[in-house]
Amino acid sequence: MKRPGSATFVLAALAVIPLVLDDYYVHLLIMAGIFFLPVAGMNLLLAGGQLTLGHTAFFGIGAYTSGLLALHWGVSPLYGMVVAAALSALVGYLLGKVTLRLRGAYFVLVTIGFAEVIRLIATNWIDLTQGPLGLPGVPPFDLGLASFTLKSKRQYYYLILVLSTLAYALCARLLRSRFGRALVAVRQNESLAESVGVSAYRVTLVAMVVACALAGIGGSYYGHYTMFLSPEVFSFYNTVTMVVMVVGGGQATVAGPAVGALVFTFLPELLRMAVFYRMLLYGVILLLAVMFMPRGIVDALQRLRRRPSVPAPETTAPTLDVLVVGKASSVRGDTALRVQNVTVRFGGLTAVDEVTFALARSEILALIGPNGAGKTTVFNVVTGFLTPTAGRVLEDGGVDLTRLPPHEVCRQGLVRMFQKASVFPERTAIENVTIAGYRLGRAGFWAMVFDTPATRREEAELAMRARALLAFTGLANRAHEVAGNLSYGEQRLLALAIALAPGPSVLLLDEPAAGLNPAETQRMMALVQEIRRQGVSVLLVEHDMRMVMGVSDRIIVLNHGRKIAEGRPGDIQRDPEVIRAYLGSGETDARV
Amino acid sequence: MLAFEDVRVAYGNVEVLRGVSLRVAAGELVCLIGANGAGKTTTAKTISGLLRPRGGRVTFLDARIDGRPAHEILRAGIAHCPEGRRIFPDMTVRENLEMGAFVRGRATDITDDLDRVLERFPVLRQRARQLGGTLSGGEQQMLAIARALMSNPKLLVLDEPSLGLSPTMVEATFQLIAEIRGQGVTVLMVEQNAYLALRMADRGYVMETGRMVLEGPARTLLENEHVRRAYLGG
Asked: Which of A297, A357, A363, A419 is 20 to 30 A distant from A166 in Cα terms?
């Protein structure tokens, strides 16, 4: 996808254009550049699935901060801009810290409310802001010294071009890095993201801080460019403009915000010829755009370009030499996991009742029982998706997992595969597994921004591991297929590859054979045995008795949340209580 | 009753059904088996109108139905029970069943049918006021089938009815399917549990990479060497 050629071309064009345009169009380009900054930030948050409708608040905080610093204390706008970015980022951090646990419409509402509060403060703190009258006479931008004050529109244009290009590069790096993949993961399937070690809260908080800093910079520049500050900057019209830019341009794409900022700055202006019908026409164009390009201009263009060429399937897939990675691979005691007296009550219903068991290292332990017996609830407790009413879950080293969130549980080496086909549906198979390798990455925020050699090496390793895992699960020839288009059984195999990506020491499989035919089930059994051979302990929930009896070392039977039997497969098959509660007459398994 | 003639279906540029032909006669129980990704679910979705073929004909009771929207096909008498127990989790069991009769007009008929269906599913009667999402997996599958029956279909298309069910529930579900068929509903069933499906069906089709490769009486398929090796794990 990288086309440095076209990027250079676009930059060159943007550098030359103002020389041939009159001031009015240069002004529009400057406004597009200024709006690009907050819009690029909104886009980062949207990549993580969070829509903010309060970004004008941070734009305004930026504008007032450096404007007031320059006006009252004579601080150079250059330094004022730095302070503005820092203050916006800080406020964004604080707001994000308390609100990013909210999702969807709730987060949207909070951001709208926050912007309104900030607007009211700016309107009513008259001593500082002169309220609705506004503050005229904000000094023009300079580069730290009065002699470097920007004078012409062209000078303003070139500086915003530099700032926007830097912001574009920053966002592009972030979106294409491990961090960007984590954002996509959170947007597409939050539980799965958590289970492979991504803290949804933390990655969206980082996105929020970056987004607010960018908005602060944009606002600061806006103030010094227009040389006037008023609570108008907080107007909802600006919010709508920003949303139109990011959604119309192409949300969660790298180029979307830039395209959106340009198109939707110029479009309303070009429509001025229509005089009376201008806004009506603008509305109709927006409507049509959303109807025919629901994912924005960039996405629509990519669709046009995309050739129906399918990448050739790999002939020599790399082999997988390390399944278990990191801390998890160090040899320790012979018990991998202990579940002690775990009880879960939902209201009056006891879903799991005093369940105790231990999973030995390199053991395959099956958990069986009728639908609704509490098997998945046990999984949810072990992997941190549920906190038990009573009881404890201990990892081998004695680490208490009981109250850890899912991504922390993953860091301890426990990864689950979900019951329903759980993948990142809009990404290709190979991207799915790469996303899931998140935990293995070490590159920090700045390493990703500067794309250091170490980061590149790490990226190459993660990509290699992802390919190896696809080959391992037999999906190598489907690597470039979008996960949502894979069949149910293939999605199960992909889910297994995803669960293996973080290099777990304990793997929890929730019905891996569901949706597989007997021949495919046998392949799945072979995979599970190979996984165990490499030192991974496996906790298995499964209804396919051929698989359960075929691979398990031990079996635990749950019924109505209680453990009713535990033992070797042969003993379990003969246990009368198990036959009554679960196995039935044996008709369905006549061939076991 | 239902006929596929050289049907082609594609997702984007990838052709998933590459000329599929299939027939289901009135009163039959036909099963469709095959590996994952062979196109079984796609076939089911094409019958019920969730997917549009790019070539070929689909006829039902001598009328062409390909390209017609799903709700019209349902009204024509084909009910589709999708894989993975798709129910409305935030509606009560009763509301779920009423949704199944959404295409039908008269309220009195619906009440009668509701009684009839609840008669057949005593578990659901007990839980009529409970939210669908709180049912166990097996009960959800029952509910999905019951809901499909509420449209009073002539043809019931079942996609993986045994998916994720415990052995006893699998038995109960298959027994139920046999009963439904015994009451004159034609059934087309997609199933991974090839052994059970073939034992119960009249005829079977075997699908591989978007094509039908084998068809015949279910008994014959059970003994077919290729079927045994590829799908029965034997």
From this structure: A297
Closest partner residue to A487 (CB to CB) among B36, B196, B234 is B36
CB-CB neighbors (< 8 A) of A374 in chain B: none
Name every chain B residue with its beta carbon within 8 A of the beta carbon of A514.
Answer: 163-164
Residue of A nearest to B37 (CA): A487
Is residue A366 a part of any domain in this protein? yes
Whether residues A224 and A286 share a domain: the answer is yes
> Domain residues for A87?
20-305
The structural domains of chain B, with segments of one domain joined by +, span 2-85+154-231
A443 phi/psi in degrees, rounded to 5: -60, 130
Q: What is the CATH number of the domain that holds A194?
A: 1.10.3470
Does domain B2-85+154-231 fall into CATH 3.40.50.12780? no
Do residues A129 and A273 share a domain?
Answer: yes
Based on the fold, state whether residues A286 and A353 are members of the same structural domain: no
How large is the ipTM? 0.71
**Nearest alpha-carbon partner for A486 in A558, A415, A422:** A422
Of the candidates B174, B192, B229, which has its C-beta nearest A515's C-beta? B192
Residue that the structure tokens 């919010």 belong to: A239
Q: Using a CB–CB cutoff of 8 Å, tell me whether A583 touches chain B.
A: yes
Element housing A260 (H / E): helix A256-270
Q: Which residue of A has its CA nearest to B38?
A: A487
pLDDT in tens, A491-533: 889 999 999 999 999 999 998 988 788 888 888 999 999 999 9
Structure tokens at B121: 């599913």
Angstrom CA distances, B227 to A163, A228, B42, B122, B213, stand at 65, 79, 21, 37, 10
| Contact at CB, A582 and B229, closer than 8 angstroms | no
Segment B166-210, tens digit of pLDDT: 888 888 889 889 999 998 899 999 988 888 899 999 999 999 888
Contacts of A516 in chain B (CB under 8 A): 36, 192
